[in-house]
Amino acid sequence: MCPVEGSTDSCTNVSLNLISLSLFFPRAKVFRGKKILGDYDVRVEQAEFSEVNLISHSNGTCNVDMQVVRSGTKVVRSFRPDFVLVRQHAFSMAQNEDFRNLIIGLQYAGVPSVNSLDSIYNLCDKPWAVSISSKTH
């Protein structure tokens, strides 16, 4: 079974792309050389929200461009994510710190996530989250 839905390619050389949107922990080192089900390589791309550009398509896919600095050189990588792990707040009151559009784009494209994209978006507005949680008691 090929893990990439709708793929017509042979699944012998498929790599699963995990985007880790976080600040500190280098997840690429944890997954380096690892395989899923013994056959599928795991490729981890880690960046902050500010380094990510996302385009969602109406057919349920998205493309991600990441502009990261590695060893003093700006590197741009483009790919289609298979999975996302978000470990950074998507909204801050600081200038240019509103990345809710990226969460909406990932949700629109149907990209699976370790942590719910709904909860990430809802927690961007703290009073909203408190009002929702007060109704659950």
UniProtKB/TrEMBL annotation:
Domain Synapsin pre-ATP-grasp residues, every copy: 28-113
Keywords, alphabetical = Phosphoprotein, Synapse
The alphabetized list of GO BP terms reads: neurotransmitter secretion
Q: What SUPFAM superfamilies does this protein map onto?
A: PreATP-grasp domain
- GO CC terms, sorted: synaptic vesicle membrane
Q: Which InterPro entries match?
A: PreATP-grasp_dom_sf, Synapsin, Synapsin_pre-ATP-grasp_dom
Coarse class of the protein's main subcellular location? other
Q: Which Pfam families match?
A: Synapsin
- Superkingdom is Eukaryota
Q: Which residues form a coiled coil?
A: none
Q: Where in the cell is it found?
A: Synapse
**PANTHER family xrefs:** SYNAPSIN, SYNAPSIN-2
Which family does the record assign? Belongs to the synapsin family.
What name appears for this protein in its UniProt entry? Synapsin pre-ATP-grasp domain-containing protein
- Organism this protein belongs to: Pleuronectes platessa
